[in-house]
Amino acid sequence: MASMCLSEDLKEHQILSVAVHPGWVQTDMGGEEAPMSVTDSVSNLMKLFASLSECDTGKFLDLEGRELPW
């Protein structure tokens, strides 16, 4: 909800705000069994960020850019 509200506040400044689920990543929290390395996760996140447009602001997205239900 914070991201959705922030997206409304920042629209006039043409700043996008999204919430992103980064996937299950090999970190201290995700553990060694997670299927994705930190490097791969960050690479995918950077691609996602580069592909965002004004119509995405306020959404909750997965790593592939698919909208997730709130």
TrEMBL record:
<dbReference type="GO" id="GO:0005737">
    <property type="term" value="C:cytoplasm"/>
</dbReference>
<protein>
    <recommendedName>
        <fullName>C-factor</fullName>
    </recommendedName>
</protein>
<dbReference type="InterPro" id="IPR036291">
    <property type="entry name" value="NAD(P)-bd_dom_sf"/>
</dbReference>
<dbReference type="GO" id="GO:0016491">
    <property type="term" value="F:oxidoreductase activity"/>
</dbReference>
<dbReference type="InterPro" id="IPR051468">
    <property type="entry name" value="Fungal_SecMetab_SDRs"/>
</dbReference>
